[in-house]
Design brief:
- This protein has 192 residues and is α+β, with helices and mostly antiparallel strands.
- The chain has one domain.
- Strands 6-5-4-3-2-1-7 form a seven-stranded antiparallel beta sheet.
- The longest helix has 14 residues.
- The relative contact order is 0.18.
- The model has no long low-confidence stretch (mean pLDDT 81).
């Protein structure tokens, strides 16, 4: 996947680690350095670890989706099924199917954190995959799962693209589809 519309977020990692009281996996740090936060094919969004005011709207960020994942974990029996406290969950992404992509942070080494999918319309409400974030995305984009771990058809075999959240916002303000850049009669309707 080319980083054509990616951008280094220039994240203050010491501030992130102080806020979350943990280091983050090396693959996530590298992803943020190459791509930043944004959308893959308009179907999955990678979250910002700290809020950053946007041009028109704030991009999705970790704290809000982490709270959502933890709430679902408590409400739908994840804690009982997996024996893991909800505080061990940190969200790093969301899908267009309302799934929340997380890490289970029970290992002291962030590079060993598995991916937890909090699914909205998946076979299981919670599923753990023994991969890091980058490998999980690679497998998802390569269609390497026998049963999709997310609620949407993530990739149809076509071109993969990443659009940074700032690029998506500029496109929207210009009256274009945030993901494709094509003219969109509904884009820009809510601009200031």
């Amino acid at each position: 996947m080319p980083a054509t519309h990616g951008a280094d977020e220039d994240i203050d990692w010491p501030a992130v680690e102080a806020t979350w009281r943990t280091r983050f996996p090396a693959d996530f740090v590298a992803f943020m350095g190459r791509f930043g936060a944004g959308s893959i094919n308009g179907e999955a969004s990678i979250l910002l670890p700290l809020p950053k005011p946007g041009l028109q709207w704030d991009p999705a960020e970790m704290a809000e989706e982490t709270a959502n994942a933890r709430q679902l974990w408590e409400a739908e029996g994840g804690r009982a099924a997996f024996g893991v406290d909800p505080e061990a969950i940190i969200a790093w992404g969301v899908t267009g199917g309302s799934d929340i992509l997380c890490w289970l942070t029970t290992d002291p080494d962030p590079d060993r954190w598995p991916v937890l999918v909090v699914g909205r319309h998946t076979a299981d409400a919670f599923a753990v995959y023994p991969y890091g974030m980058a490998e999980f995305l690679y497998r998802l984009c390569s269609d390497e799962f026998d049963v999709s771990p997310v609620s949407i058809t993530f990739w149809d075999g076509g071109h993969l693209s990443f659009v940074h959240w700032r690029k998506a916002q500029r496109r929207w303000q210009e009256g274009r589809n945030p993901e494709t850049g094509e003219p969109d009669p509904y884009a820009g309707d809510f601009a200031d």
